[in-house]
Write a structure and sequence with these properties.
Length: 364
């Protein structure tokens, strides 16, 4: 799967492979059209009520600077007990482990009480959860596990996020003449935003830690000899439990207005996308089931928080109890030489298999 460069927007490249692979596993295959050539691919084991859904995403981020990789990013490379390649940790390793778990569970399935589905959805990486939102229009499992790199720790909460674009306007002129430099103003604005982060975002959640605010992209200037008329700053604001998207955005808007007045410059802020922070009670069946499976393998089973975002919130909005569990570590995601440990994948396969079997054997 790593050899398929399913960068967000190009997930159509995965459709045929997953359709055939799920069929070869003996699963009932269902395709759900999302847009253009992109489909969610669902493999179903058993019949009757959907007791459990395992859900992960098939899209990956770009390789970034391929020259920095020690091996080609879209060729799986095995060394020192690790598989390297874009998407290895986030989240094709989880998908591969779940596929093997479904195969093993099918071989031992006798008179299962309902069905279990494995869903591979499109477009998670952009923060819109487009595929997962489409998925829950049709499927309403009793519970769900989102497969993300948690280091095989049971995560019952994830951070929310809002992404904004801040446009700072100066006045174009010859660079030899005094003018209003949008990039210079942007530099001061970044300092102001980091001060705001350090002073205003001090709350801490026991599972998710502190909220964050980071500048992730800057674009400005047209020519080397022209005073820049415009500079764009892109911000990634992560939310902990108890924070709302609306309040976080209002806080940024207020701060930008103050900075604009101080600098005497026009600053426009635009919300690009957002999703809420989400949590699941330890009393929910999906948490108890996952705890038991991890304990059977001698793995830690105390709940933790997932510091990134994922598709869990889309299931939560539909009232579907959801947890997060997967092999690999979020520290390896989105970087150069992304990898996953084979040992983690093997453990994940066993844990997923146990969860599937327990879901199909326990009373509803």
């Amino acid at each position: 799967m790593i050899a398929i460069p399913s960068v967000t927007g190009q997930e159509g490249l995965m459709k045929g492979y997953l359709e055939d692979a799920f069929g070869d596993l003996g699963l009932g295959v269902e395709l759900q059209h999302v847009d253009s050539d992109r489909y969610n691919v669902v493999g179903r084991l058993g019949e009757g009520p959907l007791r459990l859904m395992l859900c992960t995403h098939m899209d990956v981020i770009p390789a970034l600077d391929e020259s920095l990789w020690h091996t080609p990013p879209f060729e799986a490379s095995l060394r020192e007990g690790r598989i390297y390649g874009r998407g290895a940790a986030d989240a094709k390793g989880s998908l591969a482990a779940a596929m093997e778990a479904m195969l093993r569970a099918k071989k031992g399935l006798k008179n299962g009480k309902g069905s279990v589905a494995l869903a591979a959805v499109v477009e998670e990486e952009m923060g819109r959860s487009l595929g997962a939102r489409k998925l829950v229009e049709k499927y309403r499992p009793e519970m769900c596990i989102v497969l993300e790199p948690t280091g095989l720790r049971l995560a019952t909460a994830h951070k929310g996020a809002l992404r904004v674009a801040l446009t700072i306007r100066g006045r174009a002129s010859h660079s030899s003449m005094p003018g209003v430099n949008a990039i210079s103003i942007a530099c001061d604005a970044i300092k102001g935003l980091m001060k705001y982060r350090d002073e205003a975002l001090g709350a801490e959640d026991p599972l998710l830690g502190r909220p964050t605010l980071e500048v992730t992209m800057i674009r400005g200037g047209e020519r080397i000899n022209v005073m820049p008329e415009k500079c764009l700053i892109y911000l990634d604001r992560r939310l902990i439990l108890g924070e709302t998207v609306e309040d976080a955005y209002d806080g940024l808007v207020h701060e930008v207005e103050k900075m604009g007045k101080k600098a005497g410059a026009a600053m426009d802020i635009k919300l690009l996308c957002s999703y809420p922070s989400t949590s699941t009670s330890e009393d929910e069946g999906v948490v108890k089931l996952t705890k038991e499976a991890l304990a059977r393998h001698g793995l830690p089973h105390a709940p933790v928080g997932f510091p990134a975002g994922c598709d869990m919130w889309t299931f939560h909005e539909k009232g579907i109890p959801t947890a997060i569990l997967g092999p690999g570590h979020i520290e390896q995601a989105h970087g150069v030489d992304e990898y996953i440990e084979i040992g983690q994948m093997r453990l994940a396969t066993g844990v997923y298999e146990n969860i599937i079997k327990m879901a199909l054997s326990s009373p509803s």
